[in-house]
Specification:
This protein has a two-stranded antiparallel ribbon with strand order 1-2. It contains 23 helices and two strands. A hairpin with a 4-residue loop joins strand 1 and strand 2. The chain has helices at 2-14, 22-40, 43-71, 80-101, 106-130, 155-169, 181-187, 195-225, 233-244, 247-255, 260-275, 280-293, 301-308, 313-324, 329-344, 355-364, 371-396, 400-409, 411-416, 430-447, 450-467, 476-479, 482-508; strands spanning 134-135, 140-141. The protein is an all-alpha fold and 517 residues long.
Length: 517
Amino acid sequence: MLSGIFMYNYFQVSLPCENNSILNEGISVQNRFFNFREYAGQPKYLSIVFFVLGVSAAAFALIGIVFYLRYTPPKNVLIEIPILLISLSAFFVNIILLFCTGNSSADSRRQNILVTILVWTAIIYFFNGVLPRINWRKMEWQAAQVIPNEAMAGMDFESGLYNPAKAILEGEGSHFTNYPPVVTLLAMPLTYFTLWRAYIIFLTLLYITNIAAVVVANLLAGEISEKGQGLSWEIAGMVTMYTLTSYGLFFGLKNGNYDVFPSFFAVLGIFFLVRFPEKIWLSTLFLSLATHLKVYPGILFLLLIWRYGLKSIVPLFIINIGLFLSLGFDRMVEFFAQLGPYVSNPFITVKNSSAISFAEHLILNGVSLDKSLLTGIFIAIPVLIWLGSAFFIYRKGFDNLGVLWYFVVSFGPMFALPAVSHDYKLVILSAPLVLALFRMAETYARTGSALAAIIIILFMVTAIFIHRSVFDSTILYFQNKYCSVLAFQILGAWGMYTDFSSQKQILSENIPRRQSI
């Protein structure tokens, strides 16, 4: 009865005094709905909505998780199940909110999507930074040891960087390392300190470089969008927070590994390729440094060949020969001799997210297929996505936007193809995450594209499991990061297609190509 009275009063107000036609009724209802969307879409009201719904949903989710963990036998606990269900529920709620509060204002849509990313960043930290630290059965907080608190340097730092550099400087000849020669050369200044002090300096550089990689990726996104416009420092800040609390970073700090260094040089090389295209030697130098620190960024050399053609051959040849010979011919030969056995006998562990490692773990968990067949399939999937995306970019006309998306979709093969892709390598995904989120946020702000909003939220859902420690996971598909990185690449390819389609739509509507979000 109350609903009938409400509807009667509603239409009495909305209908004109004369000519109460059905057409006028429809227009009145439609106008009221869009007036609500304009009103609720204002940033200050949207923030209140998100806060109330977020706190309520978090409370219910926490109660559910407490009951699940407290009363389920430890051997039967599958923590990814409630996380996945809650993430999917939040995903649908998020999409509905964005639809109901969407309007014609680009500024409001910008605010909406930035609040969305912030909420999901908080969700990621709750699931991976708070939840694993609580013993629900004893109701105790278990603080995690994030940084080593004793005088013991990381194994990879000591055996791979410090000792080889020190052996050469002290005239003891070469020291076993499977790292390229330039790594040992760059590590030499650290040998002037004791091992522990050198390690502290190294950890500091890791932190700084993680932030720098995100900052340069943000500057690159701004260059793609037009100089001085579209710089979304909010997204960069949230991705920085995500990175500095991530399992990948903590794993790298513990082992003393440096995958963030090639990530930084790679995004820096792409930045110079876009910002200063005439400086071919500079962009070639940074991309080559990235490849000589870790081999997998070599896939980005295709950008130089696409952009410069035959002009890229001489800089690539001279710079790379110089880096290979940085410690002499004998060290170069030794490196290639050690590379073969290292690749052919990878360290198989759940923390190794390469295709061959994931295939072997599936077999160990009961999959009755040939290991070579599985490995071939798991290599082929990211490679085919990469090739298809590269061909799509080439057909669309190779420009700066294509450079950005090629960079994003190339990270699938970077993980799957090397026989060893340990989890400290996950930090290299921060720079492409900034670029992908930025482009999709800009697309959503300009066009109100529902696909762009969906892709952003799916990126954040995927980031939950990329960010999650294997030690806090219980299901192989979420422990090993192969599936998560593959999902990241698929979303990148989908985002690339959506971005190019939105550019076509904007041009067809005679709207300026890029606007600030």
